[in-house]
Specification:
The structure is a homodimer.
Chain A (H helix, E strand, L loop, with lengths): L10 H17 L4 H11 L2 E2 H7 L5 H13 L3 E6 L5 E6 L1 H4 L2 H20 L1
Antiparallel strand pairs in A: 1-3, 2-3
The first copy, chain A, binds a DNA duplex (30 and 30 nucleotides) through helix 3 and helix 4.
Chain lengths: ~120, ~120
DNA sequence: TTTAATAGTTTCCTAAAGGAAATTAGTATC
DNA sequence: GATACTAATTTCCTTTAGGAAACTATTAAA
């Protein structure tokens, strides 16, 4: 039996696996990337606008996810003193850097659907 | 009070939200993208190699995720009749199309870590 | 014969995610 | 005064994700 000699992982490789972990911890789940994608296309949006666009999301879930995204500096939350009050959400500059990633997610998803249907 | 008149979502927009859903359903979770990223760099790998590389994954989780990825045609599983038997996993052509997406995930994760540390 | 490696499976458990429905509180329209 | 819209919060519940530990079965080395 051959003894399996594996080289230890390179520093770069370990960093890359950590980067994947970091990104996925922020964005995993059913709704977060849909929220970010919606804000990326729609610009500034109100709570109810988001809720209607993200067909099917429960208000609690939307509220929770928005809070998490705000904590991670990806969106800002602004209360307007209209009557009744409205609350506006928009992407931070840092949040906008997700653009390329979201485009890739969309492109891959569209292509994957084609792949699956093809067979 | 102003009646809120929102245009219905464009067909394209609905398709894009669906594409995000599709992609995230396949790849959400703690380990799947790490598995795909590892196979993308490492080429063909055996079960125990993957387990060692993905530091901390439970064998049940690895086994389950590999099965799901195989069902979705992203990887292939090949049993070799070596003694003891070994099982090799590698990416399908379709699986390899995740390359760009994974690169974006890594890039964004690296940049995000810099952003957070900066402050 | 004991130990260890191969690739898992099984069982049991906890934690996290997510949904449904009701509620809150201020304002505005009918 | 009743109803509805704003943006949530609260409570309750179910489902899914994920981890720890033990176990299986084959083979090979010490």
């Amino acid at each position: 039996m051959k003894i399996q000699q594996e080289e230890p992982l390179s520093k770069e490789c370990i960093q890359q696996l950590r980067a994947i972990k970091d990104t996925m911890e922020l964005l995993s789940g059913k709704w977060k990337i849909q929220i970010m994608g919606t804000l990326l296309r729609g610009g500034t949006m109100r709570f109810m606008e988001l809720k209607r666009t993200l067909n099917g999301i429960a208000p609690k879930k939307l509220s929770n996810d928005l809070q998490e995204l705000e904590l991670n500096k990806l969106i800002t939350r602004t209360v307007k003193d209209t009557k009744p009050i409205t609350v506006e959400y928009s992407l931070t500059e840092h949040g906008k850097t997700l653009d390329n990633l979201i485009v890739e997610i969309i492109d891959w998803g569209l292509n994957h659907r084609k792949e699956i249907i093809k067979k």
